[in-house]
Amino acid sequence: MPHNRLDAAVTLPGEDFPRVALTAVSIELLRKLWEQHGPLMFHQSGGCCDGSSPMCYPAGEFITGDSDVLLGLFDIGEPERPQPLEFWMSREQFNYWSHTHLTVDVVDGRGSGFSVESPEGKRFLIRSTLMDWNVPKL
Q: Is the pTM above the cut of 0.70?
């Protein structure tokens, strides 16, 4: 995990760069949550700026469709025990944020009651960095 983060596998056709990453502390929390809830997924639907919260659900609990984009795929497990985790974003939100790289981090405090980390007294949040190259919109 270079630089204390894990980059997602590229999932968008025609791209060769990751759009989303996890910090080491977010991976640690996700592994704990995986033990409690089983496989997980993220969905980012709203929010206008840095600090917006992605929602973490048991995999398949949030139904994705044509209005969503698979932004990245992680494996937060060990080689002998894979733990795949998808990161989805609403297509509308992606078109606003298409010029940014997103990093999922963890901070103290309660987030949304629907996200599985809420009872832990922690919340996931997005830290964004502007990309300095042209990126396509969907």
A: yes
Residue with tokens 């497990």: 77
Q: Tell me the C-alpha distance between 18 and 7, whole Å.
A: 6
**Of 126, 130, 106, which is closest to residue 118 (Cα–Cα)?**
106
Specify the 3-state DSSP secondary structure of 55.
Answer: strand
- State the pairing for strand pair 20-23/100-108: parallel
Q: What is the CA radius of gyration of the chain?
A: 14
pLDDT tens column, 88-127:
999 999 988 888 999 999 999 876 667 899 889 999 999 9
- CA–CA dist 39, 57 (Å, integer): 9
Residues 6+ apart with CB under 8 A from 56: 30, 33, 40, 41, 42, 115, 116, 117, 124
